[in-house]
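Supplementary Methods, section 5.1.

A reviewer requested that the exact input to the structure prediction be made available. We therefore reproduce it here, unchanged from the version used in the analyses.
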Amino acid sequence: MNDRLDVSAWGCIVAAGMPNSILEKPLQDGVFEIHFQQNILYMKITNSGFLDAHPGVLVCLNAAISSRESKAPPYFSGEGISNSTKSCLISFSDPSTHVEGIDLGWYIGNENWPSFQRDVAQFLDALAIKLSKKLVIFGGSGGGFASFAISTKLTGSATVIGMNPQFDISLYPTAKEFATRAFPSAEISTKENFIERRIEWNSFFRENELLTSLDQSDLNPLCDYLLLQNWNDKHHLRLHTPLILRKVNQFSLSDWHGRIGNLGYVIAPWGDGHSVVWRTHLDQCLQMAIKGKSCTEIVKSLAGEFLPLEPNKVQYKSILSFPPIQLIGQDNTPLNLVEFGASFFENNQVKSEMLDLSFLLSFLQAKQNNLDIYALIAALQCWHDLIQNNSNFEGEIWKIENVELRLRILLFLIEEFPQRNAMAHHREFFDQFVSEFLQNIERRNVAVEQKTLSQLEMFQSNLSNLE
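The structure derived from this sequence is encoded token-by-token as follows.
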């Protein structure tokens, strides 16, 4: 289960031995084979030449291994991030993912290595002392949980960054694969009845001092934490995030960033569902962290990407929560603004509101510090996809009254675009939307003021310059 592996796909073994002997070796690019008694941990170093460039060093912990069936262990992540941030990176292959059928092991360990979390934490403590560097431990999803969990066992300080992390692995769909394959001798359940025996599994983990869930009280006071959570990740916002941000269910889109104790957080519009944090934003966070910036400073900088450069003096509290649900129609039908399609349209009596976009007009409040404008953009993208795939709506949406409503929204977005750096991420969508709008206006001979058309054309020209 924790045996020696062929690492030729990653290069050759730079050094092999017990932790103390590995720590005596110079840090250089390549794979290290670290022996913990009969167990082996594989560590990969990338861009060691940048080690002296920053006060911190990156430590990457893997999320789930994609297409695992076509790959062979060990598995390492983060090389691209190391290159883009020009920083030295240390990554570990989770030995539990070396077991057939396990693509995510959360760096918890397995029945042959129950002390894995403690052993890794002790090695990281010693490595930080050897290098005289502050560790910046990060990961997404399962790697986010692992970053938080292992940090709780550190005796030194570290910056810990988790993106869309689980905080109770037993609530995650693939936990049944991990538990039953990594601890087969426990014989608590099969993967088919794992949910029914989840409480027994949690008791088993606790009795063996395996950290498989976290709440705010577990955080290490020596560490500085940053949670980056996607705003429409319903599974995590409902089941996991409340364990670490206890009042997140009461948050509105005005409460999307802040700090509680030694935990900074940003809940931001990075996409639908379990979407990853935009690469530019992740690089920004990691670059600041390895330069010694606090998570408070990182939160402020990252929030500034979404905020207006010159906020309106009159600020409104958002009425939307996470994920962003808007009530529309006479029956107050709940609409997830980030992900709706034809099925919502077909199953609800909201035809007029959906076609004319009138349900978005309440969000046209200029230069607000909340995330409402990004809910508007997301809804406009969903609407565009819906219309593109249904030619039956064309006659309705190009009626002059509906065109005028759409123009109000577009002109508002044009004013907001230069105010918010994050809106540039949607450049391609805006370019397509405005282009199609202008083409249809001309082809259908819809009466629109020349001044307005000039504004749209200038906006589209400016978008092209951003490529």
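The mean pLDDT is 94. These observations are discussed further in the main text.
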